Amino acid sequence: SMNLKGRSFLTLKDYTPEEIDYLLELAKDLKTKKKQGVTGNSLKGKNIALIFEKPSTRTRCAFTVGCVDEGGHPEYLGKDDIQLGHKESVEDTARVLGRMFDGIEFRGFKQETVEKLAKYSGVPVWNGLTDLDHPTQILADFLTLKEQFGSLKGLKLVYVGDGRNNMANSLMIGSAKMGIHFTVLSPKELWTDQELILECQEYNKVSGGSITVTDTVDEAKEADAVYTDVWCSMGEEALAGERIALLKPYQVNAELMKKIGKENTVFLHCLPAVKGYEVTEEVFEAHAEVIFDEAENRMHTIKAVMVATLGNL
Ligand code: CP
Ligand code: NVA
Predict the structure, then answer these.
(1) Residue 270 falls in the annotated catalytic set
(2) Which residues form a coiled coil (predicted)?
């Protein structure tokens, strides 16, 4: 079996396809057990710090419930509770938390902060979202796709909207690792960073996946799954006006689903959703069952990451 003990989880770039698949299978197993009322104790005696510079519903609750289910103790540290990067350097806070906690989750702005926490704390650090990446979300999305389609390889996933945000980036990385044909349908102004595309094309050489970046609906046909995210990510609220103008033609509505989807196309959204903007109420409600499976799967997959990297398996 796979040994991920002691590893941090900062981006899926650091994980092989086999390791990602192992985490998905572990999550599936933990989910089945939880449905039977069986939880574990692999985090017994472990204390984990949950640092949040930005708000959260799913990620915070998934780490909290996942940790408690496995017998561990989670401690929430909100942005006004600690002085991270303001009155105390990230390096110093990391060294303190590393003396007291067995694992650290971080959600915030800079990818550099989560990297520093990992470097200076000496304990596993899990990325609960940064401006650049949201790797735990991808595990939940991929578990959901496996539940829907059986396997990931060869699926066609079309991401519609802000092609430069953390979700576009991390879906591109995850898809390239797992052999998914990934399309970004987005206005040119919001196309994904070219350097990341080149990096992911290297993963695709191994996995057989592909990347298409286009502003043309006609080039995004036959999707197995359509995915969108908010037009303004946390911290970008001031950009609302220009984003709405840019992205209005890229709303996921019934017409777009008809054009780029097939009979069994699923619609995914990491949530929270702003209905009437990136997705219509109609499309959202038509796919609500899978969307909330996806939200539930945040818990099972995050639990799997903690158990695999920190737990007594
Ligand atoms: N999808 C997601 O990360 O949700 P939260 O912001 O509520 O954690
Ligand atoms: N792109 C969104 C994702 C939320 C889960 C944000 O960063 O706000």
Answers:
(1) yes
(2) none
